[in-house]
Amino acid sequence: MSNLNTTNRQAAPQIVDKSQPQRILLVGASGVLGQAVQRHLGSRHEILTAGRGSGQYRVDLRSDASVEALLRELGPLDAVVSTAGGLHFGPLTDMTAAQFDSGLQDKLLGQVRLALAAQHVLRDGGSITLTAGILSREPIPMGANASAVNAALEAFALAAAIELPRGLRINVVSPTVLTESLPQYGAFMAGMESTPAARVALAYQRSVEGGLTGRTFSVV
Amino acid sequence: MSNLNTTNRQAAPQIVDKSQPQRILLVGASGVLGQAVQRHLGSRHEILTAGRGSGQYRVDLRSDASVEALLRELGPLDAVVSTAGGLHFGPLTDMTAAQFDSGLQDKLLGQVRLALAAQHVLRDGGSITLTAGILSREPIPMGANASAVNAALEAFALAAAIELPRGLRINVVSPTVLTESLPQYGAFMAGMESTPAARVALAYQRSVEGGLTGRTFSVV
């Protein structure tokens, strides 16, 4: 082409070499899934763990002040990963709006709050990875709150991706029930296939080291 | 068959003749969509309208007490339809968790609260119809809250349907931008096809008079 050697008028897109070690905040590292993500990503990246009651740093995802203080304290980050968030499980027939709201405030708004704050502190080209779950598409009895919250998180990532600045990306990992959690949850997930947390952890790597954004990585 | 004349040991399933006039509560009747639903369903059913500031009855979907008082006052209903609920629209880059929560509390939890209360007062075989919107799947800039809320409503109906007792049904109508609303919203929905509110109203009839449950009726 004739203009191969002319000066580009636009800056070249920033290429982040994601095979280099990244500095990653992992919120919710104490859970079964968080531990697997820490183990898997920790072999190649620097992982800073935070949680309500465990990890290297304390954070309450229900509080703007707590999330902002944590991000200020940690300084520059390449990725923020959340495997945190509680839901309300219980029969629809006696569910209250307050119970439903508890899942909205915790797993949904808690992770959204983290993402909204992270967009301002992540390095250019950084990533945000949140956790939803299979109930968004495959409901179970007593799971109406979980279905709503998980679907909201998937749609939030879909929408947020088209607005994030500076090459930032956002994805959601949406796993089926973990094999490790079958003793606790198996009775509620009749006939649903489980998968080991270590396999789900691959999806977090795909989000953190890959190039996709706005996606739900479904691991079933 | 040999047992055609034997006594059924189970009660016959209740067949509701939905071509008969139903007694329907419509919340949000003052909006463009609500007016179209009232016009369409009103030709064959008894419509009781309620809203925060208009309609025959006052109701605040953010309040358990207000919703319960309304349902107590109205007595037996065959269907509850909502076209109510506000969202937060604004750039992701300066969105706060409180702004995001305003849409959760209003359009999402407000309609969920109505559904949770309605399940206790609807006649056997009755129906609940809520309103979501196309942004659940087709995001636009400034629409992250809308995408999350609408997707949550769709998944809530999917999940609630498997638990509702007494033959009750629940569906969500998820329309594209209304032609009547283009002057107000068209600039935000670049290149998206609109549809007249009267066409969307058909989906409410389908939910109220039909047999489906747990469904999202997408009108695009």
From TrEMBL, chains A, B:
Belongs to the short-chain dehydrogenases/reductases (SDR) family. GO terms for molecular function: oxidoreductase activity. Pfam families: adh_short_C2. This is NADP-dependent 3-hydroxy acid dehydrogenase YdfG. The lineage of its organism: Bacteria, Pseudomonadati, Pseudomonadota, Betaproteobacteria, Burkholderiales. It comes from Roseateles asaccharophilus. Keywords: Oxidoreductase. The keyword Oxidoreductase applies. The keyword Oxidoreductase applies.
